[in-house]
Amino acid sequence: MSRPIFFYGLDHKPISREEADRLLADTTRVVARDELENGYVVSTVFTVVDQNMTPDGGDPDGGDPTPVLYETMVCDPSGVFVDQQRYTVRECAVEGHDDIKAHWEREL
User: Fold this and answer.
1) Is residue 95 part of a domain?
2) Which of 1, 2, 15, 86 sits at a 20 to 30 Å CA gap from 60?
């Protein structure tokens, strides 16, 4: 059984498809974006769409229904995605962005 798609506003409350479309076009959902000296780009955004991919929620053992609403992605200089991490709350997304940024600055 597939899960329905849920849309969320910046307050983490459910929103309509129309509200989601407006928010997807809004730059306020960008948490952080850094272009590194090595040409890599680290970007963290509020996704609007729940990225919780397990059928019963985030926890395979307990079925945690917590929406996963933030995502950090890393692109190499040619635009290929090379790393990704998702989060449930903004605070973790900010910390995760900084950690991934530091990792890719050290790696290359």
Assistant:
1) yes
2) 15
Alpha-carbon span 53 to 25, nearest angstrom: 23
The CA distance from 91 to 99, in Å, is 12
The tens digit of pLDDT for each residue in 29-82 reads 999 999 999 999 999 999 999 988 766 554 545 566 789 999 999 999 999 999
Going 44 to 47 to 48 to 51, the CA torsion angle's sign is: negative
| Residues paired with 70 in a beta bridge | 46, 87
From the list 67, 57, 74, 61, the residue with the least C-alpha distance to 92 is 67
Residues of the domain holding 88:
17-107
Strands 81-87 and 30-35 come out as unpaired
